């Protein structure tokens, strides 16, 4: 078995272009044996303070077969590992090439077999020729230089060790009082203010055709913004400070500037748009159109629809994993979830779930997807690696909206039929608490910086504020008519 690695590769945003040089990595695996089959395991890791596996694929190669794969790589740093099934002397050759958004090669991010860490280890056997350098043992004659041992007399200079008294200069350590300047470290405390918390909530009032803006510090409505007809889903891009609202009755998306609380664009999409999600890394917005059974892809830079992806029947809720660039869409009419590649804008997998799936959320740290099945009153847990169901968790009656705190690995399912929220422990896939809220709770969102969950109660025109530490409702905020969706700028 042989283990090869690209090593950690930096891919920071370019100051001149504003994008990362490498958007995707193309891996080419070549089995040069004419008689033997081989297996290569490809693993990709996202490196961001922690090492997160986001690619795991096993390639089975027949004799003389070449396999090419393209993986998402719009990340600040990443690494790919390749494990071959045979010995170091097998005939597997591998290359990894960085490519930009248009598919052009990024030469700085290209590695061929001889350069892959570990591959060099195998070839190092040839370095045995360096044994010839053993002839350099003749340099042992340099031992004559040992005569310089006379210089050992210079050891008298060791008396200079008295200079060790200069150790008294160590008293200069008193300058360590300059360490008191370390008190400036208190200024470092100012650094603890990072990241800055915006702590604003945006609530869609379906019956009032507007948005309520809530200050999370005071729980007060600080603005009301008129949008299209029948606003439903809402999502925030914290990077651009843009808020996107899906207006199901007018078939469009309102784009709001979070600095001015004004609508700066209206984008026509499909029929009956409900859900909307953002990938902040790519500045792409994904809108589920339940009436036309597709997903509109909007470019956040131009506010134009750049693609339309056909999915299952009645797409409703959606969520984006920005690390893997995968979009998960709950199809209420076909009881499954469509998995869309953000690179190709094509469905790459379909996962059967429970009856009438409505809400979706993703834990990017564990690469697990949670789907509320409103007619089977449970939550499906999907592995993002295998696209298979790994658990089913009972919830309340008619679970609808769902939110997640990645810091605590707690999932919040708003149960519309039982007027409560199920709190699911993502480590055990069990319900840790059930919290009564308002009438007909639908939308739910979580602020990971404050550990607060916000639930839109469509029947009581309120937002229930849940303290994630105590699993209790600490406040109820009156908003507009029939609140359905909640978006957070943390």
Q: Care to give the gist of this entry?
A:
The protein has helices at residues 119-123, 185-191, and strands spanning 2-5, 9-10, 24-31, 38-47, 51-61, 66-72, 77-84, 92-99, 105-111, 200-205, 210-215, 220-226, 231-237, 242-247, 252-257, 262-268, 273-279, 284-289, 294-299, 304-310, 315-321, 326-331, 336-341, 346-352, 357-363, 368-373, 378-383, 388-394, 399-405, 410-415, 420-425, 430-436, 441-447, 452-457, 462-467, 472-478, 483-489. With 490 residues, it is mainly β. Strands 1, 2, 4, 5 and 7 form a 5-stranded antiparallel sheet that branches. A 4-stranded antiparallel sheet has the order 6-3-8-9, with no helix packed on it. The chain has a 4-stranded antiparallel sheet with strand order 12-11-10-37, with no helix packed on it.
Index terms:
490 residues; mainly beta; five-stranded antiparallel beta sheet; four-stranded antiparallel beta sheet; 2 helices; 37 strands; 50% strand; globular
Explain what the structure shows.
By secondary structure, this protein is mainly beta. It is 2% helix and 50% strand. Strands 1, 2, 4, 5 and 7 form a 5-stranded antiparallel beta sheet that branches. Strands 6-3-8-9 form a 4-stranded antiparallel beta sheet, with no helix packed on it. The chain has a 4-stranded antiparallel beta sheet with strand order 12-11-10-37, with no helix packed on it. A hairpin with a 4-residue loop joins β15 (252-257) and β16.
């Amino acid at each position: 078995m042989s283990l090869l690695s690209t090593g950690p590769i930096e891919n920071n945003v370019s100051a001149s272009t504003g994008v990362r040089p490498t958007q995707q990595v193309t891996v080419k695996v070549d089995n040069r044996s004419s008689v033997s089959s081989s297996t290569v395991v490809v693993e990709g890791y996202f490196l961001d303070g922690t090492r997160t596996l986001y690619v795991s694929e096993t390639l089975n190669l027949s004799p003389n077969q070449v396999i090419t794969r393209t993986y998402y790589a719009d990340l600040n740093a990443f690494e790919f590992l390749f494990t071959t099934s045979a010995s170091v002397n097998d005939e597997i050759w591998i290359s990894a090439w960085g490519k930009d958004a248009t598919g052009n090669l990024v030469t700085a991010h290209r590695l061929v077999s001889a350069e892959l860490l570990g591959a060099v280890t195998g070839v190092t056997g040839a370095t045995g020729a360096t044994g010839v350098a053993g002839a350099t043992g003749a340099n042992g004659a340099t031992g004559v230089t040992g005569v310089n041992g006379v210089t050992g007399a210079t050891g008298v200079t060791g008396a200079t060790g008295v200079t060790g008294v200069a150790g008294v200069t160590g008293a200069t350590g008193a300058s360590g009082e300059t360490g008191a300047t370390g008190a400036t470290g208190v200024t470092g405390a100012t650094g603890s203010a990072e990241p800055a918390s915006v702590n604003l909530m945006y609530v869609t009032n379906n019956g009032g055709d507007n948005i309520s803006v809530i200050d999370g510090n005071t729980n007060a409505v600080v603005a009301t913004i008129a949008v299209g007809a029948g606003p439903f889903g809402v999502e925030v891009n914290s990077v651009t400070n843009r808020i996107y609202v899906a207006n199901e009755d007018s078939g469009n998306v309102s784009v709001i500037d979070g600095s001015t609380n004004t609508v700066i664009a209206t984008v026509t999409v499909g029929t009956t748009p409900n859900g909307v999600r953002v990938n902040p890394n790519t500045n792409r917005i994904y809108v589920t159109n339940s009436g036309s059974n597709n997903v509109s892809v909007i470019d956040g830079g131009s506010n134009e629809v750049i693609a339309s992806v056909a999915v299952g029947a009645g797409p409703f809720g959606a969520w984006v994993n920005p690390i893997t660039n995968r979009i998960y869409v709950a199809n209420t009419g076909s009881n499954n979830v469509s998995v869309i590649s953000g690179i190709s804008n094509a469905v790459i997998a379909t996962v059967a779930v429970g009856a009438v799936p409505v809400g979706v959320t993703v834990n990017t740290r564990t690469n697990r997807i949670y789907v509320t099945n409103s007619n089977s009153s449970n939550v499906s847990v999907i592995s993002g690696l295998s696209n298979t169901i790994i658990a089913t968790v009972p919830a309340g009656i008619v679970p609808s909206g769902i939110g997640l705190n990645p810091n605590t690995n707690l999932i919040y399912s708003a149960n519309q039929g039982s007027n409560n929220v199920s709190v699911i422990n993502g480590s055990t896939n069990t319900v840790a608490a059930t919290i009564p809220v308002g009438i007909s709770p639908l939308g739910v969102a979580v602020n990971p910086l404050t550990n607060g969950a916000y639930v839109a109660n469509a029947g009581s025109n309120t937002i229930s504020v849940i303290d994630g530490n105590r699993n209790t409702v600490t406040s109820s905020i009156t908003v507009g008519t029939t609140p359905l969706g909640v978006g957070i700028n943390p």
